[in-house]
Amino acid sequence: MANKLITCTINGKKREYYIDIRSSLTDMLRGEAGLDSVKHGCDVGECGACTVLIDGLPFNSCIYLAIWAEGKDILTLEGLSNVKGTISDIQQAFIDEGAVQCGFCTPGFIMSSIPIITRKEPSTREEIRKQVAGNLCRCTGYEKIVDAIEKTQKKRIAERT
Ligand code: FES
Ligand code: FES
């Protein structure tokens, strides 16, 4: 077993870890960084429960080697709260719209939705569905999840005008 030093930014802070070169980014984020929002779901890139942003784009961290994170900027759900621990608007929208039941899939859905809620132009519901098509939920209706994302996008666009 070989280990390698990885330096990257996680939720705005510079981090260094000695990682088994076979480890996934999910393992590094959960095991080394203690970020439990990143879920072990299918572990084969099918369910989206492990989704994080890498340099601003959503990736399934279960099929992304930790060593590939060298020099990257990684954002997890924990990084969306402000310094006082207040949750973000998209997290609040999931609560308000009833888009959470067991919550296992929720961090992944939220991280996949970031590119859409930060767009300057409104998206159609179909575009929102496509954006989160790689995320599976087995207990909440998908409509409520789309409602939460759409509501947050509209709110952010209105705040900019
Ligand atoms: S746990 Fe990564 S896609 Fe399912
Ligand atoms: S809320 Fe339970 S899997 Fe989505």
Structure description:
This protein is of the alpha+beta class and about 160 residues long. It has two domains: about 70 residues, Ubiquitin-like (UB roll), CATH 3.10.20.30; about 70 residues, DNA polymerase, domain 1, CATH 1.10.150. It is built from five helices and five strands, in the order ββαβββαααα. The protein is globular and about 50 Å long. The mean pLDDT is about 95. Bound molecules: FE2/S2 (inorganic) cluster (FES) (2 copies).
Could you give a quick summary of the protein structure above?
With 161 residues, this protein is α+β, with helices and mostly antiparallel strands.
Could you name the key traits of this structure?
161 residues, alpha+beta, Ubiquitin-like (UB roll), DNA polymerase, domain 1, 2 domains, 5 strands, binds FE2/S2 (inorganic) cluster
Hetero ligands: FE2/S2 (inorganic) cluster
Largest sheet, order of strands side by side?
A: 2-1-5-3-4
Q: What about the largest sheet?
A: 5 strands, mixed
CATH fold naming of the largest domain: Ubiquitin-like (UB roll)
